[in-house]
């Protein structure tokens, strides 16, 4: 059986790419500790389509 814990998988989506209207999406999958970071996560990640570092926010 799988362990139940505070660590969950989250999807990060680029905020600038959504606003630009270009086709496609930039998404990353990572994990976070629900107990330490209850709010939505925000990280600067590389967007391959825009070819620069952009802000990615947690979705869902």
Secondary structure blueprint with pairings:
Layout: E1 7-14, H1 15-20, E2 27-33, E3 42-47, E4 52-59
Written overview of the protein:
The mean pLDDT is 90. This protein has 60 residues and is mainly β. It has one domain: Single Sheet (Rubrerythrin, domain 2). It has a 4-stranded antiparallel beta sheet. A hairpin with a 4-residue loop joins strand 3 and strand 4 (52-59). The chain is built from 1 helix and 4 strands.
Question: Which terms would index this structure?
Answer:
Rubrerythrin, domain 2, 4-stranded antiparallel beta sheet, 1 helix, 10% helix, 48% strand
In one word, what is the shape? elongated
Question: Class by helix and strand content?
Answer: mainly beta
Summarize the helix and strand pattern as letters. EHEEE
Going by CATH, the homologous superfamily would be: Ribosomal protein L33
Q: What is the radius of gyration computed over CA atoms, rounded to a whole number of angstroms? A: 13 Å
Instruction: Please tell me the CATH architecture by its name.
Output: Single Sheet
Tell me the β content. over 45%
| CA(first)-CA(last) distance | 26 Å
Characterize the largest beta sheet: strand count, sense, and whether it forms a barrel.
4 strands, antiparallel
In percent, how helical is the residue content? 10-25%
Instruction: Name the CATH class.
Output: Mainly Beta
Number of domains: 1
């Amino acid at each position: 059986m799988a362990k139940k814990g505070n660590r969950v998988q989250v999807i990060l989506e680029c905020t600038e790419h959504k606003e630009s209207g270009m086709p496609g999406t930039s998404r990353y999958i990572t994990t976070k500790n629900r107990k330490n970071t209850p709010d939505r996560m925000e990280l600067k990640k590389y967007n391959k389509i825009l070819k620069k570092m952009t802000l990615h926010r947690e979705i869902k």
